[in-house]
Amino acid sequence: MVLTSDSSLCRLSTMGSAQPRLTAQTLKVLTILMSHIQDEISGAEVGRATKLASGTLYPILMRLEEAGWVESRWETEDPHELGRPRRRLYQITGVGIRKSRQTFREVLLPLKEYAWR
Question: Does domain 2-115 have CATH number 3.30.2160.10?
């Protein structure tokens, strides 16, 4: 474990040490991130799309980042020029894409079998 400090944020890094819990809420977040594979998306945008409260959303994003499924960074623009606080931007990684696809296959295929019974 490594303790990292970014001017206003201190995080305990355990990159890749554990797989994230794949709850219904985590699957919602992964769905949004997978729909923006080529783009960075702010946490607020993920929250609006998933309708998850920040107290649920940000721990999920942190766990996904710790597992190596997601990368994040602070936007570099000056908040005073933007007229708003800076945003944390998230993007799914190659590992996250592979693991998400695998997870959705494992979750959805069994559901299809029972959906029409």
Answer: no
CB 90 within 8 A of CB 43: yes
Q: How confident is the model at residue 14 (pLDDT cuts 50, 70, 90)?
A: very low
- Which residue's structure tokens are 């995080």? 11
* Rounded mean pLDDT, 41-65: 96
DSSP output for 2-45: EEEEETTEEEEE-TTSSPPP--HHHHHHHHHHHTTTTS-EEHHH
- What is the pairing mode between strands 2-6 and 88-92? unpaired
What is the SS3 assignment for 78?
coil
**Phi and psi of 23, rounded to 5°?**
-80, 175
What's the pTM?
Answer: 0.77
Q: CB of 40 within 8 A of CB of 91?
A: yes
Q: Cα–Cα distance between 38 and 92 in angstroms, integer?
A: 9
